[in-house]
Amino acid sequence: MRIALTAFTCRGADLAGGLVRDLEGLGHVCTLAVPERLSPETGVPGYQSLGTWTGAQFSAADALLFVGASGIAVRAIAPYVKDKFTDPAVVSVDEAGRFAVPLLSGHVGGANDLARLTAQLTGGTAAVSTATDVNGFFAVDQWAREQGFFLDGREGAKRVSAALLAGISVGLISDFPIQGALPDGVAEGPAEAGIALTLDPEKTPFPHTVRLIPPVLCVGVGCRRGTPAQAIAAAVERTLAAHRLSLRGVGAVCSIDLKKDEPGLLAFCQSLGLPLTTYSAEELSAVPGDFTPSPFVKGVTGVDNVCERAAVRRGGALIVPKQAGDGVTVAVSRLPLTIRFSEKGD
Fold it and tell me: Any idea which architecture 147-213 has in CATH?
């Protein structure tokens, strides 16, 4: 998680500096800044305007951690707040480290977990107030974030949480095997509101459905030299739509190493926030299986098929064979997945 910290006194800056060290030791990426007036004394980079700093971090960071009064944090973030599905996590902790308060995006953004971690590091208490946490109910948005699944259907998520809080059972349907017990209040079968674990962006098994989409698709791509990103994106989206697969389910894009510097392919990957994984012709040729051969492709690349072999080499079973058009070839494999509600990041 990219965490931006700030403090408003020298004592607060000391606490923030300690948090930076501890959080970075746990693998987080942290930046710390203070008001310009404190910079000479603390040796910490300074900013002229808290509002400007906050606005910049709202788009650059995954979380903002204010060391000081919660009211200062609330006023600083107020102009930038949109909704819990896009806002970063915001946590406020007093300069004595006694109380860590999640102010924004407690579940989806991870503010509740960050507040708990902050309290653990300072020896304080996390003041978590979200209803599902207070009452000990399953929080579908937080669980989805912990698993790395995309939550599709904001209104459905609200209905699921409201039903659980009201003591009404919610439904569940899964395209993946489930191991272990379901959360309390969740049952497989029909319901007014429910959860669909699926790669199908159109699946609506309940009147109020929240789809949770895991990033288990590997997309193999081949293309002519100089193919623009728009053409590659169109080919991939067309392929996925034809097979009722969500673009949000793509967790990897792969190709042959001859394409590792292909501008259009790199730009397409950047638009998805994913790296481009490439393999040599020898690695692709060694992938076992029956693939769609092309003498032309073999003459150019040294291997008879790029997209299918690259997708399978990245992992999983081929579920969409080679699709060709406009100088682009696309194939899709799917990684295996077992759902376990009792474990994080499975």
Answer: 3-Layer(aba) Sandwich (3.40)
